[in-house]
Amino acid sequence: MEGYILAELIYPPKFLHLLKKLGDEFFSQGIYYYKLLEYTIVVHELRGKDKKILDIGSGKSFLPFFYLNRGWETWVVDNGDFYPDFERFYLRLVEDKFSKGLSKFKVLNDDFLKADLPLNYFDFITGISTLEHFSGTKDMRTTQKISSLLKKGGKCIITLPFSQCGTKERTVVKNGFSFFQRDYELKCVFTRIIKPSGLHLRYFYVLGERNPRWGSKFFLYKPLSRFKNVWSLFPFIFWKVYYRGKSEHLPLFRYPGIIVVVLEKKR
Fold first, then answer.
1. What radius of gyration do the chain's Cα atoms show?
2. Which H or E run contains 45?
3. Where do the domains of the chain lie, and which CATH numbers do they carry?
4. How far apart are CA 20 and CA 17, in angstroms?
């Protein structure tokens, strides 16, 4: 039962409770460690009661269930290319685990740019590891549409793979399925994500591995003692060191590089 022991050690209590509620399908699989970083920032940023939230490119994510568990009206949209059965997946779990959840849960099997969504409606929109898969100018047009869907004062969180050596575009093959991916350098984040959106930049996080050539620009190397019991359980080097950012109190894991952008609609 080592997986359960590790889950108890690693998952924040809020995540752990919900993972247990969702059952072994989620709990035994766990969350990729870099997703845990992204999710922790999302939970820290997005708060309140009776909120409306949209998650873009959800796939089979744990995060929409977290929103729903808070009592929020939760929308998910995905084109279903990678997970053709994602719509059935969500509806089955919502009906089974959230007795009153179906009335607050909407799932759309559609391209986000083509989806019919209400304007000025959402308090929050999240795109977790999603926009990097939008080729051409689709990532730029996506941020413009996000702006039109947010209420005044609404927030958007976008996470992207970080490249310290220039923006890179490539085709990735996974489980027999090929898809586009773009890794973003900082300049590209501003020109392709922030500026086209017209939204106000609250701040962004850069998370990633320790690299002596550039890491000192972003990270303060300070091991987190609360994870010391976990180190011996993983033989992989990227699990053995944890860091904090210079001005934040969020843990940073070795590998991979991630940018988390937090935007707000001011008008």
1. 18
2. helix 33-45
3. 2-264 (3.40.50.150)
4. 5
pLDDT in tens, 5-14: 334 444 566 6
Confidence band for 44, pLDDT divided at 50, 70 and 90: confident
CB proximity list for 196: less than 8 A, separation 6 or greater: 140, 141, 143, 144
Token reading at 77? 């949209």
SS3 122: strand
CA dist 59 and 90 (Å) reads 10
Q: Are strands 219-220 and 242-245 parallel, antiparallel or unpaired?
A: antiparallel
Could you tell me which of 55, 92, 61 has the C-alpha nearest to residue 77?
A: 55
Q: At what angle do helices 33-45 and 13-22 cross, to 10 degrees?
A: 110
How far apart are the C-alpha atoms of 226 and 10, rounded to whole Å?
A: 10
Cα atoms found within 13 Å of the Cα of residue 27, Cβ hemisphere only: 17
Encode pLDDT of 55-114 as tens digits.
Answer: 999 888 888 999 999 999 999 999 988 788 889 989 999 998 887 778 999 999 999 999
Is this model's pTM higher than 0.85 or not?
Answer: no
Q: Are 139 and 131 in contact (CB under 8 A)?
A: yes
Answer yes or no: is pLDDT of 225 > 90: no
Q: How many helices (H) and strands (E) does the chain have?
A: 10, 12
Asked if residues 133 and 170 have their Cβ atoms less than 8 Å apart, the reply is no
Q: Are 171 and 178 in contact (CB under 8 A)?
A: yes
Please, are residues 151 and 267 in contact by the beta-carbon 8 Å criterion? no
